[in-house]
Amino acid sequence: MLGFLKEPVVVTAKINVSLVALTVVGLISRLWGLCYPRAVVFDEVYYGQFVSLYMKRIFFVDDSGPPFGHMLLALGGYLGGFDGNFLWNRIGAEYTMNVPVWSLRLLPALAGALCVPLAYQILVELHFSHSAALGAALLILLENSLITQSRFMLLESILIFFILLAVLSYLKFNNLQRHSSFSGSWWFWLLLTGVACSCAVGVKYMGLFTYILLLATAGLHFWHMIGDQNLSNVSLLCHFLARGLALIIIPVVMYLSFFYVHLTLLYRSGPHDQIMTSAFQASLEGGLARITQGQPLEVAYGSQITLRNVLGKPMQCWLHSHANTYPIRYENGRGSSHQQQVTCYPFKDVNNWWIVKDPGMQQLVVSNPPRPVRHGHIVQLVHGITTRYLNTHDVAAPLSPHSQEVSCYIDYNISMPAQNLWRVEIVNRESDTDVWKTILSEVRFVHVNTSAVLKVSGLSGASLPEWGYRQLEVVGEKLSKGYHQSMVWNVEEHRYGKSQEQKEREVELHSPTQMDISKNLSFMAKFTELQWKILTLKNEDTEHKYSSSALDWITMDTNIAYWLHPTSGAQIHLLGNVVTWASANAAALVYTCLSLWYLIRRRRKIYDIPEDAWQLWVSAGGVCGGGWAVNYLPFFLMEKTLFLYHYLPALTFEILLIPIVLQHLGDHLCRSVLLKSMFSALIVAWFSSVYFVYCTFSPVTYGQPALSVTQLKDLRWKDSWNILIRKQ
C-alpha cells in the first residue's frame, strides 16, 4: 500500500531561460535607483494629489480618465504606509520623510519591466523565431523613453502592460482554438483577454483603442469560423456566447467594479464634489450632507428652499436676490424696469432662500398636514428676506436683450402689473402626478403669462457689472424648447416654514436645518453621474511649454524635461532612443510598401512568398501595425493638450514591427548565403548602435550621473530638443 514511497517524487518543468533572463534584466533596468530623485518629477505633481485624496478617503473627479490607474498608484502608497500628507504643488519639491517614494513608484516600474518578457512572448505567439522575439524584447528593454516613463508615479507603463497582456492573451487563446477549444487553458486565456482589456480601459481611455482592435480581430476570426462546415450550429453558438461573455460582459462588469471600489473608498466630501449634483453631494460624508441630512423630502406650500442650478457652469450657483435694483438705464442706453435684482450667486447666503407660496392663499407657512407641490402646479416664489415675489415681464434682460428680465416685483404704481405665477415642471418625473422632492427632483419654472423659462444665462462666464456685484445673470428664456441644464434647478436646502411674522421668519432663515433622514443615491445613479462628468468635464486647455502635436512624435522633434537638480546639471528627460524610433518608422514604411507590392502581385496571380508566410505577414501586421495605427491616428482628431508620452503605446507596437520586418527580409529577400551573412552583420551593427544610443542618453534617462555643460550640449542632437543648461 505504501509502495509509492520507495521511489522519490520527481517534478519536471520546462524553463525558458531567455524569458527568465529578460524578466530579470527588465526588472533591473526599471527598479535600479528607483527612489532617485527623491523629488516630485513632472506629472507626479498631478497624480500625487489623487493618491493623497485616496489616503484621506476624499472624493475627487479626474476628467483624464477612469479611476483604476489612480487606485493602483494609491495601492502603492497604501502598501508603503503613506498618510496622504504632502503638498503636491511644485515639480522638483523634495519629498518629506513620510512619503514612501519607492512604494509609490513600484507598480509603474514593475509594469514597465514586465513589458520586456511580454514583447518576447507576443512575437513567439505570432510564430516568429526566437531570435526575432529576443530582438523585440531587447528593443523594448533599451528604449529610453519607456524606461523614463516607467520609473515614476505615472500611468503610461501600466497602460502599456495591460495592452500587451491583452494582445498576448488573445494570441494564446487563438492559437489554442484549432486543437483545444473549451479546454481549461482556452478559457483561461480568453477570460484573461477580457480582464486585461477592461484594466487597460480602466487605467486610461486610450486603452479603448486596443480593446476595439482586439474586438475587431475576434469578430473577423469568428466570421471565418462561420464558414467552417465542420462546426455545428450549436458549436458556433457556444463559441459566440463564450466570446461575448469574456470580451464584452466581463469587461463591462469589471469597469463598473472599478467605479464601485472608487466610490466606496472615497466617501468623504471634498473640493471636487461641488461640480456634482446636490443629490450626489448629499451622499458624501461631511460637506453638503451635514447641511441637508434629514431635510423634508417633499416640497410643500410654505416650504423654505434654496434653488441650485443643475448645470454648475461656469460655476455652481444658487437663485439669489437682494435689495438692490436694476439701474434705470444701462451703459448702452437701454432702460430697465428698476425692479429688485435677481441673480445666480456662487456662494451660500441667506439671500438664496425662497418661500414656495400658494397663489390662492396668503400664508407663508406649511400647513398641517403639509400640502405637497406636484408637477404642473402653479406657485409663487417669495424671496425670504425681502418678501418680494419672483417676477418676469416683457423687458429686456441686462446682458441678454433677446431674453426677459427676471426681478423681484416692486409696485411703483406705473401700470406695470406683477407677473409672478410660475408653473413647476419636474423634468425627471416618472409620472405627471409626481411630487416635487428635495435634491432628487430636477425642475423647470415656466412663467404662466409669457411661457418663458427661468434660466442662468452666464454660460460663457459673463457676469453682471459692478451694480450687480459680478453675479451671474438670470433671465426668462423665451425659446424654451428642450431641457438645457441651465434651465433646470433642484432644491438643495429645505425646511418647513413655521413663522408667519417676517422678523421671526428671518431668524428662522438664518438658522441651520436640524433633522435626521438620509437620502442616499444608488450606485448606478452615482456611477452614471460621475461617468458623465468625466466625459464632459473639460479643464481649460492651455498651451504647455512641453506640449506637442502628433506629427512631432514620429520624428521625435520634441522632448519633455521631467526634472532638474536644484544645484547640479543632473536632469531627467523623456527622450527616446533615436535609432529605435527611426528604425520603427522605417519598418512601418517597409511593411506598408511590401504589403502593397504583394497585394498587387497576388492580384496578378503572382505569389512571391508561400501562402503560410503571407498569412503570417498579414496577421503580424494586423496586430503590430494595427496596434500602432489605432493608438496613434486618433490623436489627430483630439482637441486636447498633447504630450510626447501619449505616443508611447503606439511606439511599443511599432517597435514590435522591427524584428518582424527584419526576419521577413532575411527569410524571403536574402536568398544567397552571402546576402544572409551581410544582412546578419548589418543587424549586429545596427543593434550595436541601438545600445550605444541607450548608453549615451542614460544620464538623462536615470538622472545620474550629473553631466557637465559641454556634455549636455553634446546631447542636443536636434535643435528642437530642450536640454536644460544652467547659466554659468
Automatic annotation (TrEMBL):
GO terms for cellular component: endoplasmic reticulum membrane. It holds the Pfam family MIR. InterPro entries: ArnT-like_N, MIR_dom_sf, MIR_motif, PMT-like, PMT_4TMC. It comes from the Eukaryota. Keywords: Endoplasmic reticulum, Glycosyltransferase, Membrane, Repeat, Transferase, Transmembrane, Transmembrane helix. It is an enzyme of class 2 (transferase). It is found in: Endoplasmic reticulum membrane. Residues 296-359, 370-427 form the MIR domain. The chain crosses the membrane at residues 12-32, 68-88, 100-120, 126-142, 154-173, 185-203, 208-226, 246-267, 578-600, 642-662, 674-694. Belongs to the glycosyltransferase 39 family. This is Protein O-mannosyl-transferase 1. It comes from Formicarius rufipectus. The gene is Pomt1.
